[in-house]
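Problem: given the chain below (249 residues), write out its structure.
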Amino acid sequence: MANELPDYSEKVAAAVASYWEVRTSQAQRSVESGAVNTGLRAEVTGGRHLDALELLLVDVLVDAGIPASMMEVKRRPVPGYFRRDKSWDVVVTVEGRVLVIIELKSIVGNNPGQNFNNRTDEALGQALDVWTAVERGIIDSPLRPWLGYFMLIEDNAAWNRVSAPRTAVWPSDPIFKDSSAADRAAIFFDRMVRERLLDAACVVLADRSTGDVRYNRDSLAFQSFAAAMFGRCLQFKATNADIAWTQSD
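Solution.
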């Protein structure tokens, strides 16, 4: 097992570059096939644009000492309390035991308001549903489920523009004063982790034209997210000592 967390900067940049390349190629294939999909829809209907980012998550688990040959990685439903279940994008199991559960999403374009509100509603609801299911005994696991959220946001003017305040029925938290949509994304996920609704979150701001990657907060950087996954792997192996662990791939 690795004793030290690797620097994932280059792998993150490569995975994000692959994300943009796949979106572009999907849009091109849509045009060439005569499909009616247009704009952003044409970029995502191929369905595989997040593959490189998913593989990056698996790389972290392997680096932390979980052999790739022992992992099953797929989209799977997780039981809830308010709903029967809800599918999470990446559920990693070893010998049928859940290692990590991660939602992997992206938002691109110039309309951050509605898109991000939909994502935050979804993220908050998913997490609350899982933890209530844990409290009510519907989810019975030796380890508290490990929930992570990875969000890629297109780094553009619309996301970085300070929004005019709206007239709310009560004053909003002052932390949101003079904030951009990107700022509010960072506040949201940082608070989700602080309140233990998520075990870790990563918010990547990715510039489509330059390929640059940045983070609003160090606590939401991929390196911090990977460190949390590393810790979970150590805990998982210690708690599941009965598993016949093979050598890391």
